[in-house]
Design brief:
With about 425 residues, this protein is α+β, with helices and mostly antiparallel strands. About 40% of the residues lie in helices and about 20% in strands. The strands form 3 sheets. It has an 8-stranded mixed beta sheet. Strands 13-12-14-15-16 form a 5-stranded mixed beta sheet, with helices on both faces. A 3-stranded antiparallel beta sheet has the order 2-4-3. Helix 7 packs antiparallel against helix 8. The chain is elongated. The structure holds one RNA strand of 78 nucleotides.
Length: about 425
RNA sequence: GUGGAUGUAGCUCAGUUAGGUCAGAGCACCUGGUUGUGGUCCAGGGGGUCGGGGGUUCGAAUCCCCUCAUCCACCCCA
């Protein structure tokens, strides 16, 4: 029998777990300093939670199962519906704004490829109970704060900010019927990825006339900030323009302006987004997928049986991010280094018991310590120490003295176990 | 779900074109180079039914068919 990992899943050997832990630690640290608290939800939910509002895209990729009571369940493919469920359950007792984050393992049954696996981790950061654009700004800032933390600058990654209501208003102004808006948005999303001919075909397929397509292209291809200025004069557009203005101004004030740029192509695939939306991309374009994405979803809590409460947030997956970090060489050496403090060695077979005693004392004092099981020559034990990734070797000599050797520099000096414990 | 490419040791690959010492290399791993010092070096060793199954042939990693898996693109999405 030859067993393989299930399609689209990954094994994490210790070196990969070290990198993953570094990533999670960084996510947690950044979320915490931005004022978000960690929560978590179950790995399975009732299927209905997702079929209700997430949209066809998610539902078609669900891993679903039936429990022994005949209930339809799904392995969570995203976090947001469960977050909405949890918040709805306590909406009257939670102080607002609710600023929560989580790091979750998610599953989607899509075809695995570069940047996409069937099991992955996502960092989710949300603000619930605030209609202010400052909530969106905080989410974008948190994403940018993380990118900067790991050494990705504005030349590496750009957050492209769009506005669904703004684009919808623009489409309506061009005479696009309400029923065709969703299809038109999908076509717009493809605009940067296809040729003019292909785009025109997509637009035709979405039910736009040649005239409407020309008008939309004029809008999309113009400088986004200039388009913003132009629309500011239009009474119907103004509220949406002002939200974008406020967001960009807030990000500028917080010092994240250089990471952000308006881009009306960004409309997002999930059905529940209602307002400002954004995606973070590799600026060089060598990673073709969004590193992170999010936006405002003001109707989701209500749609899941709660009150009408404004909400906004983003998700960042580990797969695309991992490719980008790897490509840019941004995974620091300390993320891959092992952290064994002492490797205790006997300089003579008579000290074997002393090695055990010393290892025990170090460990009980909270210091990491390891040793060789087999009695071996000193040189071999040092080799073991090196291969176990120890920072220092502690050598116990036959005459009762001890020395600590820094394995990186080779420096060695006499010491006692007591001195190490006091240090 | 659709199309394309690829599957030889843990990893990176050679060998497949014209079937016959073709089961190999480097790295990794283990052991030794012995009794007070590692990361170098030297020697030795373990490990692959050549993705799996069937077929053609005296003979198949090599040719044919099927299948599985992986990767890439589409779709959708983080």
């Amino acid at each position: 029998m030859d067993f393989q990992p299930v399609k689209g899943t990954r094994d994490f050997y210790p070196d990969a777990v070290r990198v993953r832990n570094w990533l999670f630690d960084t996510w947690r640290r950044v979320a915490a300093r931005n004022g978000f608290e960690e929560y978590d939800s179950p790995i399975v939910e009732y299927l209905d939670l997702y079929t209700a509002k997430s949209g066809e895209g998610i539902v078609s990729e669900l891993f679903h199962l039936t429990d022994r009571g005949g209930r339809d369940l799904a392995i969570r493919p995203e976090t947001t519906p469960a977050l909405a469920r949890m918040v709805n359950a306590r909406i009257n007792s939670l102080p607002r704004p609710i600023k929560w984050f989580c790091i979750q393992r998610l599953c989607r049954a899509e075809k695995p490829q570069r940047g996409r696996s069937r099991e992955f981790f996502m960092w989710n950061v949300d603000v619930i109970g605030a209609d202010s654009t400052l909530a969106d700004a905080e989410c974008v800032f948190t994403a940018v704060d993380f990118l900067r933390e790991v050494g990705l600058g504005p030349d590496d990654v750009q957050v492209r900010i769009g506005s669904r209501p703004l684009v919808i208003a623009r489409l309506r102004a061009a005479g696009v019927a309400a029923a065709r808006i969703d299809a038109a948005l999908l076509a717009l999303d493809k605009r940067p990825k296809v040729t003019q001919d292909e785009f025109e075909k997509l637009a035709r397929g979405a039910g736009l006339t040649a005239e409407q397509t020309r008008e939309i292209c004029g809008f999309l291809d113009a400088d986004p900030r200039a388009a913003l200025d132009e629309m500011r004069c239009d009474e119907a557009m103004r509220p949406h323009v002002e939200r974008v203005d406020e967001l960009l101004a807030a990000l500028e004030a917080m010092g994240a302006g250089d990471y952000c740029t308006p881009d009306w192509h960004i409309v997002r695939g999930l059905a529940y987004y209602t307002g400002i939306v954004y995606e973070a991309f590799d600026a060089a374009g060598s990673v073709p997928r969004a590193v992170a994405g999010g936006g405002r979803y003001d109707n989701l809590l209500e749609a899941l049986g709660g009150p009408k409460v404004g909400a906004t947030g983003f998700g960042m997956g580990d797969v695309v991010l991992g490719i980008l970090l790897d490509q840019k060489g941004k995974i620091p050496p300390e993320a891959t280094a092992r952290a064994l403090e002492y490797f205790v060695i006997d300089g003579d077979a008579s000290r074997r018991t002393a090695v055990l005693e010393t290892v025990g004392r170090l460990r009980r004092a909270g210091l990491s310590a390891d040793f060789s099981y087999a009695g071996r020559p000193l040189g071999k034990q040092l080799k073991d120490a090196d291969r176990r990734g120890a920072r220092r070797a502690l050598i116990l000599f036959a005459d009762g003295t001890a020395a600590v050797k820094d394995l990186a520099t080779g420096e060695q000096h006499d010491t006692t176990v007591e001195a190490l414990l006091d240090a």
